[in-house]
Amino acid sequence: WCWNELVTPDPAGARGFYARLLGWDYEEQEGGYTLIVNADRRNGGIRGQTDQERGNPPSWVPYFTVAAIEEAAGRAEAAGGRTLVPGTEVAIGRIAAVADPQSAVFCLFEGETDP
Predict the structure, then answer these.
(1) Interior CA angle at 87 toward 82 and 88, to 5°?
(2) How many angstroms separate the CA atoms of 37 and 19, rounded?
(3) Closest listed residue to residue 48, CA positions, set 108, 96, 6
(4) 101: Cβ–Cβ under 8 A, 6 or more apart, which residues?
(5) Which residues does 105 contact at the CB level (< 8 Å), separation at least 6?
(6) In 3-state terms, what secondary structure has residue 26?
(7) What is the tens place of the pLDDT at every residue in 89-100?
(8) Taking Cα atoms as reference points, which of 14, 13, 41 lies closest to residue 27?
(9) Which of 42, 48, 51, 78 is most enclosed, with most CB atoms within 10 A?
(10) 85: nearest Cα among 11, 33, 7, 26
(11) pTM to 2 decimal places
(12) Looking at residue 91, what is its pLDDT?
Protein backbone atom coordinates (compact mmCIF):
# COMPACT_ATOMS: atom_id res chain seq x y z
CA TRP A 1 0.00 0.00 0.00
CA CYS A 2 1.34 3.44 -0.91
CA TRP A 3 -1.57 5.87 -1.32
CA ASN A 4 -5.31 6.45 -0.76
CA GLU A 5 -7.47 8.62 -2.99
CA LEU A 6 -11.00 9.78 -2.30
CA VAL A 7 -13.10 10.19 -5.45
CA THR A 8 -16.18 12.30 -4.70
CA PRO A 9 -18.68 14.69 -6.33
CA ASP A 10 -18.06 17.11 -3.41
CA PRO A 11 -14.33 17.54 -2.71
CA ALA A 12 -14.87 20.69 -0.63
CA GLY A 13 -17.42 18.95 1.61
CA ALA A 14 -15.10 15.95 2.01
CA ARG A 15 -12.16 18.17 2.96
CA GLY A 16 -14.24 19.87 5.64
CA PHE A 17 -15.54 16.57 7.00
CA TYR A 18 -12.12 14.91 7.31
CA ALA A 19 -10.49 18.08 8.67
CA ARG A 20 -13.07 18.15 11.50
CA LEU A 21 -13.06 14.39 12.05
CA LEU A 22 -9.34 13.60 11.77
CA GLY A 23 -7.58 16.97 11.90
CA TRP A 24 -6.19 16.64 8.37
CA ASP A 25 -4.51 19.52 6.57
CA TYR A 26 -4.42 19.90 2.81
CA GLU A 27 -2.27 21.15 -0.04
CA GLU A 28 -4.19 22.32 -3.08
CA GLN A 29 -2.71 21.36 -6.45
CA GLU A 30 -3.37 22.69 -9.94
CA GLY A 31 -6.34 21.11 -11.64
CA GLY A 32 -8.38 20.74 -8.44
CA TYR A 33 -6.44 17.87 -6.87
CA THR A 34 -5.97 18.06 -3.10
CA LEU A 35 -3.12 16.36 -1.24
CA ILE A 36 -3.98 15.07 2.24
CA VAL A 37 -1.41 15.98 4.89
CA ASN A 38 -1.54 13.95 8.09
CA ALA A 39 1.14 14.38 10.77
CA ASP A 40 3.25 16.44 8.34
CA ARG A 41 3.19 13.62 5.75
CA ARG A 42 1.34 13.42 2.44
CA ASN A 43 -0.61 10.19 2.52
CA GLY A 44 -3.37 10.54 -0.02
CA GLY A 45 -5.49 12.78 -2.17
CA ILE A 46 -9.01 13.97 -2.84
CA ARG A 47 -10.37 14.61 -6.31
CA GLY A 48 -13.69 15.28 -7.96
CA GLN A 49 -15.39 12.60 -9.99
CA THR A 50 -14.80 12.51 -13.74
CA ASP A 51 -17.75 12.59 -16.12
CA GLN A 52 -17.48 8.77 -16.41
CA GLU A 53 -17.65 8.40 -12.61
CA ARG A 54 -20.67 10.65 -12.05
CA GLY A 55 -23.56 8.77 -10.50
CA ASN A 56 -21.25 6.39 -8.64
CA PRO A 57 -21.09 6.73 -4.87
CA PRO A 58 -17.99 8.43 -3.44
CA SER A 59 -15.27 5.92 -2.67
CA TRP A 60 -11.72 5.51 -1.44
CA VAL A 61 -9.28 3.96 -3.91
CA PRO A 62 -6.13 2.36 -2.45
CA TYR A 63 -2.91 2.28 -4.49
CA PHE A 64 -0.36 -0.52 -4.28
CA THR A 65 3.24 -0.27 -5.50
CA VAL A 66 4.24 -2.99 -7.98
CA ALA A 67 7.44 -3.69 -9.90
CA ALA A 68 5.68 -4.02 -13.29
CA ILE A 69 2.15 -2.78 -14.07
CA GLU A 70 1.33 -5.20 -16.91
CA GLU A 71 2.60 -8.21 -14.99
CA ALA A 72 0.62 -7.29 -11.86
CA ALA A 73 -2.56 -6.57 -13.87
CA GLY A 74 -2.13 -9.92 -15.62
CA ARG A 75 -1.87 -11.71 -12.28
CA ALA A 76 -5.06 -9.94 -11.13
CA GLU A 77 -6.88 -11.07 -14.27
CA ALA A 78 -5.60 -14.64 -13.84
CA ALA A 79 -7.02 -14.59 -10.29
CA GLY A 80 -10.48 -13.52 -11.54
CA GLY A 81 -10.14 -9.73 -11.54
CA ARG A 82 -10.25 -7.37 -14.48
CA THR A 83 -8.24 -4.41 -15.71
CA LEU A 84 -10.38 -1.26 -15.90
CA VAL A 85 -7.67 1.17 -17.03
CA PRO A 86 -4.46 -0.29 -18.49
CA GLY A 87 -1.03 1.05 -17.52
CA THR A 88 -1.06 4.81 -18.06
CA GLU A 89 1.79 7.30 -17.79
CA VAL A 90 1.41 9.98 -15.10
CA ALA A 91 3.82 12.65 -13.91
CA ILE A 92 5.51 10.37 -11.34
CA GLY A 93 5.29 6.93 -12.93
CA ARG A 94 2.55 4.67 -14.25
CA ILE A 95 -0.82 3.67 -12.83
CA ALA A 96 -3.49 1.10 -13.74
CA ALA A 97 -6.97 0.59 -12.31
CA VAL A 98 -8.04 -2.96 -11.51
CA ALA A 99 -11.14 -4.58 -10.00
CA ASP A 100 -11.05 -7.73 -7.90
CA PRO A 101 -13.55 -10.58 -8.53
CA GLN A 102 -16.09 -8.80 -6.27
CA SER A 103 -15.68 -5.54 -8.29
CA ALA A 104 -13.76 -3.64 -5.58
CA VAL A 105 -11.53 -1.15 -7.38
CA PHE A 106 -7.88 -0.50 -6.56
CA CYS A 107 -4.94 0.97 -8.43
CA LEU A 108 -1.46 -0.27 -9.15
CA PHE A 109 1.49 2.13 -9.11
CA GLU A 110 4.85 1.65 -10.81
CA GLY A 111 7.45 4.33 -10.22
CA GLU A 112 10.53 5.42 -8.37
CA THR A 113 8.63 7.16 -5.57
CA ASP A 114 5.25 6.63 -4.00
CA PRO A 115 2.45 8.79 -5.49
Answers:
(1) 135
(2) 10
(3) 6
(4) 79, 80, 81
(5) 59, 61, 84, 97, 98, 99
(6) strand
(7) 998 899 999 999
(8) 41
(9) 48
(10) 7
(11) 0.86
(12) 86
